[in-house]
Amino acid sequence: MALWDVCIRRPVFTAMLMAAPIVLGIFSYFRLGVDLFPDVDIPVVIITTTLRGASVEEMETNITKLIEETVNTVAGIDELRSTTKEGISTVVVQFRVEKNGQIAAEEIEAKVRSVLNQLPLNTDTPIIDRFDISAAPVLSLAISGNRDLREITHIAKKTIKENLETLTGVGSVTIVGGRQRAIQITVDPSRLLKYQGISIAEVRNTLLKENQELPGGKVDQGKLELSLRTVGRVLSVKDIQRLIITTRNGQPIRIEDVARVEDSFEEPHNLSRLWSLGENKIDDPSLGGNAVTLFVQKQTGANTVKIVDRVRARLDELMPALPADIRIETIRDQSRFIRGAIDEIKRHGAMAVFLVSLTILIFIRDWRTTLIASLSIPASIAGTFALMDMLGLTLNNMTILGLILAVGIVIDDAVVVHENIFRYMEEKKRSALEAAGQATSEIAMAVTATTLSLLVIFLPIIFMGGQVGRFFNSFGLVIAFAILMSLFVSLTMTPMLCSRFLRLEDIIHGTKSGIVWRIIESSYMIILRYSMMHRSFIVFISIGLICLTPWLFTIVGLEFVPRDDQGEFQVAILLPEGYSLERGDLEVGQLEQRFRSLPGVTHTFTVIGDTTSRLGKGQGDISTANIYVRIEDLAKRKFSQFDVMKLARDIVADYPDLRAAVQDVSAFQETGFKQVMIDLNVRGPDIEKLKSISNDIIAWMKTQPCFVDVDSSLSFRKPELVIVPDRDRLSELGVSLDALNSTVTVLVGGEPIGKFKEEDEQYDIWLRADKQYRNDKETISRLTLPSVKPGIGAVELGNVATIKSAFGPASIERFYRQRQVVISANLEGMATGQAVDLITAKLKTLDLPPLISLNF
Q1: Fewer Cβ close by (within 10 Å): the C or N end of the chain?
Q2: Which of the four pLDDT bands, split at 50, 70 and 90, describes residue 1?
Q3: Domains along the chain?
Q4: How far apart are CA 232 and CA 217, in angstroms?
Q5: What's the half-sphere exposure (Cβ side, CA atoms, 13 Å) at 402?
Q6: What is the C-alpha separation between 112 and 93, in angstroms, rounded?
Q7: Which has the closest alpha carbon to 170: 328, 43, 336, 314?
Q8: Which whole-number Å values give the CA distances from 442 to 18, 360, 445, 812, in the listed order?
Q9: pTM, 2 dp
Q10: What tens digit of pLDDT does each residue of 250-259 get?
Q11: Confidence class of residue 666 from pLDDT cuts 50, 70 and 90?
């Protein structure tokens, strides 16, 4: 007995057979994660190493090259690239797609750990990260208030950040733009000269030794055992001031005699600022001000929408406990786009179900038939949810796109089976029970063959290779299983329902009596008769269309991710090297003010400096800035996001000193990757030839209207001061090179030399010279150095060394252990695939020197 005969004779068994996947699917649906894209394992590992104060060349020679040489021996590497900046080395290792990302990270970590002892002294332990497609913050919050920024930072950290980090699914919460509390000890070098023999090294050692809490062992009192501790920690700023450095002529010399001690904050290396359009729609600069920003990142695989909902619910709970002037505003909410995309897809899915059902109703003109055929859609889709949950898939653009496509496919099998049953009842006047069994038996093999032919189309997607395959395999899985479910439904549930609910007396008029059927049939017969009478013409047209297909394919744009009007964009800015944070803030602030006057702009959010939280204390690149611009929702405006971006480019053109790019807010963000549409690498051993070739390419690209924001990694030359020691004078005056370096490092660069404990928190104690003694060559040359020779005392730096002005590279790019120049650009009015073809054609006309290569 065939499966459909069993289902027809045993309706309760059939109901239970179909209820199992449907119930599992319904429960699975509420367990599925919701995200914008599939959670893809991309085998890319990023190694970040820092050495405070090191030059770019020193970082490249002593750190970047060593790490590249070490990790290059790991199997499966596809690309090896690096970027070296002052004090920062970033090495990006990209493996072949078949490599497991977790295993790759473990192998890289083992290799790096083996050369830690070869890194320069004081190098921070390298940070090893895996590329995570979900690493971009799911929520960005700006906290502001009518109070000191340091106090806002304290509230943001203690009351908000630490509370949000306890939520399930939240991976980390990073603070940007805050002012962390610190004790600043500002030394006056001129006052040090008053006390013979006292150097900055003695001040440093005093702060290290006199601010400790040390164990003293155990005190045994028979039945009791007591712990003994020496509590030598400073308890207040006044205690620090009273610390004794040394004694001269019976008089103690204290910290307050040579330095100023302040309860202040760490020297800032980043800032963030938020502006929101007022209700009166007036561009009021006072509405924008510095804010503390919290970037909330989720754990890998967590549900983005649920995480955001949890964070918002927790913020609602915290708001009553916060001071009345504290405001929390959402800058970026990744769930907003996910909800919009998912809701839009669901709406189209519901519309597809409705239109399919309406089509069946128009042709067959029987509501029972329409209802039975339409039931195959939710039955097939619900069962697919169970598979998605079992495989760990999420509801995202790819999987829901597959489900929508499946809506029009899964009903085909049921309609074919149903129509044959309907035909048996209409033409052969069989009862519903007889027609269901006979008609299904007649059509079962044809339905199975049709389903398998569809599977042949979609199953290969599951086995696609490369990065594209990683994104689309979930699409293939979903649609392939939905098609299999439709075959199962059409051979089980559909015959059973037809046998029980169709009525012969309701089908006596037949479907061919309807006007819609007659119009379709007559139109088709006219076209068929014409085609049979003009066979040569039809064959010619068919062959012509086939031949035109490759040409049509070439004129269609190629994109990995389509550009959508999301109502937001960002302006990435590289400031001229040597700009201070204050000057960069002034320049970017002017640009930001002009962006606020653009049509539809409701928010601007500016960040200057590092936001990765991977750098050590007192470090950070302040030459980078990012302005995030949000415009009104698409429904409220008659212009597009891209129109506003074009106007923003016109504004940026008025600031030639700023290297700025107006670009989309990327869905994928991670350290080591530029958010640009075109990335061309020119590499070779001769940097001057690389510079010449890249300049020619850039000049050509600027003549093409499709390329915008054209730039290269040939950064500005960074101004710097170089101390050249006179070794004869060092030896003559008894000053060691180590003493010179350590003195300059502490007095000019500053150094955290201890902790100040208050309640359950610890704050850094920073030691450095007053700003007026470290702001130019002349003042630095007057800094004093300790001498080991008796009777000499303090020696001015200018007596043993020369300070010269120089220029050094701001960054060095490397690819496969060779230096390279990266040419980047965005596109306007052209798809990425066409732009790549255009650049490739241009590159073929270049006469490249030996050993010079180019690639995307």
Answers
A1: N
A2: low
A3: 3-31+366-507 (1.20.1640.10), 44-130 (3.30.70.1430), 139-181+278-334 (3.30.70.1320), 182-265+719-809 (3.30.2090.10)
A4: 16
A5: 30
A6: 12
A7: 314
A8: 23, 22, 7, 72
A9: 0.74
A10: 788 888 888 8
A11: low
